[in-house]
Amino acid sequence: MSHPEEKLAELGLKLPEVAKPVAAYVPAVRTGNLVYTSGQLPLREGTLIATGKVGDAVTPEVASECAQQCALNALAAVKAEIGDLAKIKRIVKAVAFIASTPEFTGQPQVANGASELFGAVFGDIGQHARSAVGVPVLPLDAPVEVELIVEV
């Protein structure tokens, strides 16, 4: 299998710089053979890709792109903690929070923006448990936030 960052390049993607925390926390913590990331927002070069709620100002397609960016940001936080994405043995769990209108029920499809990226980059070890949760609001009015648990 090729290196995860080579797979990202094949997809036309690259790891961003680790997003600076917006409050009092760190981007990722390692304990034993697990790395837990803090929730990652869809920041690209320091700016949110979109703001607002899915089902209102944000389309499901844009929200899925946001989920993918959150996933990239989470992988950047993992890399900063462990030094090399090739050390990942398994994406264990992803949790996607989707700020959405009460009528919107497509949270799983939005979260696929992150999940499909993990599968494309890591193959079988990218297959993970997941929760996709609709919430009323997220920090900075972001439409999506993703956190990870990774085995190294």
TrEMBL record:
Pfam families xref list: YjgF_endoribonc (PF14588)
Residue ranges occupied by any Endoribonuclease L-PSP/chorismate mutase-like domain in the UniProt entry: 6-151
InterPro entries: Endoribo_LPSP/chorism_mut-like (IPR013813), RutC-like_sf (IPR035959)
Protein origin, superkingdom: Bacteria
Protein name per UniProt: RidA family protein
